[in-house]
Specification:
This protein is mainly α. Helix content is 84%, strand content 0%. The protein contains 5 helices and no strands. The longest helix is centred in the first third of the chain and has 40 residues, at 2-41.
Length: 148
């Protein structure tokens, strides 16, 4: 009886959390569309498009980190990054997610550093990274929904 109640509670939490994430992913898509519009309206040397794309990337990375932490706390998923998985297993999710956040910050810093020299390449690399991150977020939401 208690196990059934716990399972229903987890299912309800996962559904609510999944709806929030899907809404936020729609916001990321709007971010990306804004970046494309800014890119089309600006010269090759302007930075607003790349900054919008980086904002979308960091937002998607934050969602990945929060969803992974939540799933790990529920015990329904594991970290898929082979570099971070041993850290999660040995040191815990907080340390691993801090390192994951630092990785994303370092990637963003490198992209901003090289933006002046290679504006097109950095813009499209950022769009690609954001798309990959949104794919990971969608896979995490599917895992959460599998709790049902």
């Amino acid at each position: 009886m208690a196990a059934d109640i716990r399972k229903q509670r987890l299912r309800g939490e996962a559904m609510r959390y999944g709806r929030v994430i899907i809404t936020l992913q729609a916001a990321i898509i709007v971010y990306l569309l804004s970046a494309g519009t800014a890119r089309a309206q600006s010269s090759i040397e302007s930075e607003p498009a790349t900054h919008l794309a980086l904002g979308a990337y960091i937002t998607a990375a934050f969602f990945d980190t929060s969803i992974t932490s939540y799933c790990h706390g529920l015990g329904v998923c594991k970290e898929q990054n082979p570099l971070l998985r041993p850290i999660v297993d040995r040191r815990g999710v907080v340390v691993a997610m801090t390192i994951k956040g630092a990785e994303h910050a370092a990637i963003s810093g490198l992209l901003l550093h090289y933006h002046k020299q290679h504006p097109r390449a950095v813009f499209w690399a950022t769009i690609g990274l954001t798309a990959a991150q949104v794919y990971v977020d969608a896979a995490n939401v599917r895992t959460l929904r599998g709790v049902r």
